[in-house]
Amino acid sequence: MARQLRVELLLIAACFLALLVAGCDEQPLKVGVANWKPQSTGGPIEARPLPSAQQVHSNYQRWLESETAAKVRLYEVVLVHATNQLNYTVNVQRGDTPMGAADFTFVTFEYRDPTNGTYRLEWHRRGRHQPDFLKLDGHPKKVWLQLFGAPEESTNPRLKIVAIEGVESRQVLVAEEGRKAQ
Predict the structure, then answer these.
(1) What is the mean pLDDT of residues 15-32?
(2) Whole-model pTM?
(3) 165 Cβ neighbours under 8 A, 6+ residues apart
(4) Beta bridge partners of 111
(5) Measured between alpha carbons, how far is 75 from 108 in angstroms, rounded to an integer?
(6) CATH for 95
(7) In a domain, 29, yes or no
(8) With contact defined as beta carbons under 8 Å apart, do 49 and 63 qualify?
């Protein structure tokens, strides 16, 4: 009887694990949704207009040092015209996770704003995705961006796309404390 119970428990555990692993693969993102903004934890989200490429890092530092509040600090910009999108690449890689190997989709491109300069924009998501919603066409695309990387890392500032107007967001962004001296 004890042996049968152990076998049943092992079968239940194996079924649970199989369901968990199968459920970990990301489903395609829904496009055309009204609620496209991500959630945050630890504080609210504040989005400001994207400054010029040459001033992004210094602007972000001043923003952090201007207050003590914890918040998610994002930049907002409307991307326009396919001719402003350069070197668009999609790369799917397989990587190890605690739940086993998984696919990850990475998109990178340069966005050249005729007035503000050139930015390196990056987007990534677990799973295999067709991120055609990131290709610029005749329709403007409002995006929220999160600065990452060091100023000396590349000639163009690196920003992660964390939200795209009309595209489902599954992210939870973590607030960062302000650094204003008290």
Answers:
(1) 58
(2) 0.81
(3) 36, 141, 142, 143
(4) 85, 119
(5) 17
(6) 2.40.50
(7) no
(8) no
